[in-house]
């Protein structure tokens, strides 16, 4: 019997016209993703999509993924209930003020102090969506999973030709221009909990999970609703290990109006 486990792979691409460094999405996989490494221990994944209309949302998304997974690694129950995940989100926000102070100091040292028109954005704080998940193989040959999300970054669980679970959105029409967002300055855990969703389940060897930020997630659900199997196409790209090929496909899909022009992040958890 094959020891239950998984491979993890991540791909990302900035919106058209932006450099890689300008991508406001962030993701983190623990242990670090290595496409050729079969993981038999629990794997943690976090994805965050920084809101373009808020200042410094990219760095906040990166801090958010790091803070969330540190909390989930210490206490997996953080994914079990909205209140627990809200507490993890608020704790992640504690890293923002020290990061911002260092950023301001670096700007001043470089002779580029914060301009008057930037200050209101800094005072409001950056925003991002958040999705975190844990995948844990067990002795019975299955993998249990748990996830929590605030906003419209999504997790999809597939088996063969079937989409088994779409979380937290299950309808392509549910995506809009005002998803739930985590403000780096928010300490109101009750407010965060009201906008948090949680889910859990069990998977078999051979199942697939895809964690996507909103533009790719909306495309995924539209294709599935048309009777397609978008997971097969995405798996070709992640297993092929060719980011340039993925970027070329994405560029064509954007040009055809199939994928909205936005930053894109994909993490594939492949159960073999």
Automatic annotation (TrEMBL):
Pfam families named in the record: PP2C_2
Domain of life according to the entry: Bacteria
Domain PPM-type phosphatase: 22-250
InterPro entries: PPM-type-like_dom_sf, PPM-type_phosphatase-like_dom
Protein name: PPM-type phosphatase domain-containing protein
């Amino acid at each position: 019997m094959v020891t239950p486990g998984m491979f993890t792979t991540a791909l990302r691409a900035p919106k058209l016209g932006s450099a890689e460094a300008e991508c406001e999405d962030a993701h983190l996989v623990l242990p670090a993703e290595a496409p050729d490494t079969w993981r038999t221990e629990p794997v943690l994944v976090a994805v965050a999509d920084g809101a373009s209309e808020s200042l410094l949302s990219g760095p906040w998304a990166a801090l958010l993924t790091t803070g969330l997974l540190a909390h989930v690694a210490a206490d997996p129950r953080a994914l079990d209930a909205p209140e627990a995940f809200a507490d993890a989100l608020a704790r992640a926000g504690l890293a923002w003020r020290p990061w911002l102070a260092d950023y301001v100091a670096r700007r001043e040292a470089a002779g580029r102090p914060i301009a008057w028109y930037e200050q209101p954005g800094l005072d409001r704080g950056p925003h991002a969506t958040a999705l975190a998940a844990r995948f844990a193989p067990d002795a019975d040959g299955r993998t249990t999973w748990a996830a929590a999300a605030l906003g419209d970054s999504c997790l999809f669980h597939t088996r063969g030709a079937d989409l088994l679970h779409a979380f937290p959105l299950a309808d392509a029409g549910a995506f809009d221009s005002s998803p739930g967002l985590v403000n780096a300055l928010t300490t109101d855990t009750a407010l965060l909990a009201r906008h948090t969703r949680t889910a859990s389940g069990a998977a078999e060897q051979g199942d697939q999970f895809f964690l996507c930020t909103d533009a790719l997630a909306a495309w995924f659900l539209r294709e599935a609703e048309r009777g397609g199997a978008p997971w097969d196409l995405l798996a070709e790209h992640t297993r092929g290990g060719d980011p340039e090929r993925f970027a070329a496909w994405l560029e064509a899909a954007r040009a055809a109006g199939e994928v909205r022009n936005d930053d894109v992040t994909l993490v594939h958890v492949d159960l073999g």
